[in-house]
Amino acid sequence: MKIAIEGNEANTQNRVGVSNYCFYLIKEFAKLKTDNIKFEIILKNQPLDDLPTANNQLQYKVVKGSPLWLRYWVSLHLLKKRITRDYNLYFAPAHYTPKFIFHPLVVTIHDLAYIYFPNEFKKIDLYKLNNWTKEAVLKAKQIIAVSKTTKKDLIVNYQLPEEKIKVIYNGFNPPTNEYQTQQLGFNLTEKKYFIFIGTIQPRKNIARLIKAFEIFKDKTNSEFKLVIIGKKGWFYNEIFQQANKSRYSSDIIFTDYVADKVKNKLLSSAFAYINPGLYEGFGMPVLEAFYFKIPSAISFTGALPEVGGKAVEYFNPYKEQEIAKSMYNLYQYPKLRRTLIKEASNRLKEFSWKSTAEKTLEVFIANARN
Description:
single chain, alpha/beta, Rossmann fold
């Protein structure tokens, strides 16, 4: 059996979100020891050095062509493979698929934010997400959802049968120790700041987080800062303007995208992790905070409660006062912090990329053409 995987998402240097999902699955598939299942990773360019080395189990196939590489050039490649009967299944790790597919299709859907927050997407991206995702889920033989929330949203918005969707949570990959030699930087003091990680865009609710931070500072008169890690997404100008106008503007730090070793240093040295997102399909930074043993306060929305379990402090993300109260609770009550950190350590054990890959492989086997 040979499984074709669109791996272009993993073949990038600055991986976030879906790119990490694809990257870690490929790494786990490369470790499998089996004679009857092989993987071919379809790429637009030669694989980067940190992708797994090709072996008897896993090979790379570079398909040249542009524009619309995935939609049409990969379609042509799949047609050739259909003629030679070389693939038993095609896996799309993130929403989009080739226009024409001649093999059983499994696709992973990460979230449906574009349906609930359409005004926060560029027109071209919104067109692709609306049309290409619908096309993918309708022609897929099986859909993988990364959370129960995403599964429910798929059923409601696309009228899909429940049995067509399999929930498989993302895994977690412990970081290397490289961050330990990294300087903290950004004029920060250890355990004297809250941290947020995510793309700078309205759905991440950073505007309310800034207001909540102001309330917290007014109440505590503390030296705490707010560190916001993430690249610029879209519609971010108002967020930066708000931060600049804040009476605590000097205590609000935007780092932009940073390398993993820098992010991990910042996270490990933070006092607490805050996620006020209005909608998340999963929430990987929650698990990262668990690993570094810092307490977390997050929104009780989307898939975040599925990830956080009983190991976090929850708040209503639409109310700045509630966000500020959670920040204050973590600041004021050491026993609460200790309890959450202990719960988080146990919760983290439930997420591994090895388990995610094994469950994903079970889906492949069940849906592959003989």
